[in-house]
Amino acid sequence: MMENPRERGDSLPARQQFEEAFLPHLDAAYNLARWLLRNDQDAEDCVQDAYLRAYKAFPRFRGGDGKAWLMTIVRNVCYTAIRKLRRHETPESFDENIHQATDDTATTEEFRQKANAETLRRGLERLPPEFREMIVLHDLEGHSYKEIAAIVAVPIGTVMSRLARAREKLRVEIIAISTKEISYEL
Amino acid sequence: MNCEEAARLIGPYLDGELDLTACLETEAHLAACPSCREKLDLQRALITVVQEEMPRHKAPAFLATRIRASLKVDQSPTETIPWRQPWPVVWTWSGLAGALALLALMLVFSKPGTSSSLAQEAIADHVRSLQVNHLLDVASTDQHTVKPWFAGKLDYSPQVADLGPSGYPLIGGRLDVLDHHDVAAIVYQRRKHFINLFIWPANKSPLGERYYEQDGYHVLEWTKSGMNYLAVSELGEKELRDFTEMIKNQTTPPME
C-alpha cells in the first residue's frame, strides 16, 4: 500500500516521485502488455504510452495500490491497440461459452509430462486475451481476485469463473499442442 | 455441497480465495469424493506448473530510459519543460493503415528556451505525437473523413485542407491538449516530416502573428476568422511558411 506522495508534502519534484513509485512496476507492466499484444515493439510502445498517461493522471492518483492502478492503465492502452490492429478484421464478439473447454480425458500425470515452458507459452498465446490476462494477472503477477476485478472492471464472480475457464482452456491447449492433434492456423 | 459446486470452488480454494465456511465445506466434500480429489490434483498440478514455468517477459533495459526521457519531454502541470539538459530521445513511429513503419530519429535538446510557454507546450505535444503511437486518432488523407471526425468531440469545426497536390498531404487528425483546452490537431506530411497544425477558437485571446524557433523546431502562430492556428514541425522555416501560407489562403470563416 502506498499513499499519494504529493499528499506527504514532499519536496521531490512530481516527476521524480512518479518515477520512484511506478518504475519499479515496469517489468509487471511490460509482462502484461507483452502477453496481451504478443509482440515486443507493440508492448514497448503501449507501456511507454501507459506511463505517460499515468504520469498525466498522477495528480488524481489517490494512493492505494499503485501497481494495480498502473496495470489498469496498461491494460486499457493494450486493448485500444488490439482494437486498432484488428480494425480490418471482422469484429468478433467474445462469448465465454464458445471458449469452454471440452477435452477432459488427460490425466494429471499425462499433463505433467506435456507441460513445459514451450507448451505453456504457446498454449497461453492461443487463448483469447480475455482469458490470457486472467492467468497473467493472477498466476504470473500475483494479483488477488479482488485486484483483478478492479483492473478488468468486472465482478469478482466473473474473475473466478473466467480464471477457471482460462486454466481449463490452457490445459487443453497444452495437451493438444504437445500431441499435435490440432493444426496451427494463425 | 454437490460435485458441481465443488468443481467451481476448487480453483478459488487452491488460490486461497475462499472464506472460512466455504473452505471447510469444500474440504469436507473433497474428503468424501475421490472424483473431485482427482480434479483437485489436476488443478494443483496446472497452477503449480503455470506459476513456476510460464515465461515472464522482462522489460528491455532501454524501456525505462525511454520512459524517463518521454516524461521529461512531457509537460506536467507542476513543472516546466527541462530544456537545459541534453537528452537523446529515440523516436518511434508505427505506420498507418496497418502497415508498420519504423522511423528512428535522434534529437538533442541543448539550447535554453526562448519561446512562449504555449509554443513550448506545442513542441512537446508535437514531439510526443511522434514518439508514441499517437500521431493520429483518425488516419485519413480525405478531408471529408477527418473534419467530421471532430464533430461531437469539439464544440467547433476545424479547417481541414487538402494540400496533397502541393506536396503537403493530409494524413489525419487527433485530439490534443494545449493550454488546458482540448484542441484539434490536424496532421500533414512533408516527405518524412510531420506538421501538427493545432486549431482552436481565439475567443478573447487571439495569438497574432508570431514565429519561434527552438531546438530545431519551428512554430508559426496566427489568428484568422476567429480561430487560432499554431503550426509546429521540425521542417525548415521556409517550407513551414509555405505551408502556412497555403493554409491561410484556404481558410474559410467558421460556420456560426
Structure description:
Helices cover 65% and strands 0% of the residues of chain A. In chain A, helix 3 packs across helix 4 (66-85), helix 4 (66-85) crosses helix 8 (145-152) and helix 8 (145-152) packs across helix 9 (156-179). The longest helix of chain A has 24 residues, at 156-179. Chain A is built from nine helices and no strands. The model of chain A is unreliable at 5-11, 97-102 and 181-186 (pLDDT under 50). Chain B folds into two domains: 3-53, no CATH class; 61-250, Phosphorylase Kinase, domain 1. Chain B is built from seven helices and nine strands; from the N terminus they run ααααββαβαββββββα. Chain B has helices spanning 3-14, 20-32, 34-53, 61-73, 117-131, 143-149, 237-250, and strands spanning 88-90, 106-108, 138-139, 170-178, 181-190, 193-201, 210-214, 217-224, 227-233. A seven-stranded antiparallel β-sheet of chain B has the order 3-4-5-6-9-8-7, sandwiched between helices. In chain B, strands 1-2 form a two-stranded antiparallel ribbon. At the A-B interface, helix 1, helix 2, helix 3, helix 5 and helix 6 of A face helix 1, helix 3 and helix 4 of B.
Secondary structure layout:
The complex is a heterodimer of chains A (186) and B (256).
Chain A: H1 14-22, H2 26-37, H3 40-57, H4 66-85, H5 108-114, H6 117-126, H7 129-140, H8 145-152, H9 156-179
Chain B: H1 3-14, H2 20-32, H3 34-53, H4 61-73, E1 88-90, E2 106-108, H5 117-131, E3 138-139, H6 143-149, E4 170-178, E5 181-190, E6 193-201, E7 210-214, E8 217-224, E9 227-233, H7 237-250
Antiparallel strand pairs in B: 1-2, 3-4, 4-5, 5-6, 6-9, 7-8, 8-9
**Annotated CATH architecture of the largest domain in chain B:** 2-Layer Sandwich
Report the C-alpha radius of gyration of chain B, rounded: 28 Å
- Using the 3D structure, state the CATH architecture of the largest domain in chain A: Orthogonal Bundle
Which CATH first-tier class of the largest domain in chain B would you pick?
Answer: Alpha Beta
Structural class of chain B: alpha+beta
Order of strands, main sheet of chain B, comes to 3-4-5-6-9-8-7
How much strand of chain A? Answer: under 5%
- Strand percentage of chain B: 15-25%
Q: Biggest interface, which chains?
A: A-B, 56 and 46 residues
List the secondary-structure elements of chain B in sequence, H or E.
HHHHEEHEHEEEEEEH
Per the principal axes of the C-alpha atoms, what is the gross shape of chain B?
A: elongated
Cα-to-Cα separation, first versus last residue of chain B? 70 Å
Helix content of chain B: 25-40%
CATH topology (level 3) name of the largest domain in chain B: Phosphorylase Kinase, domain 1
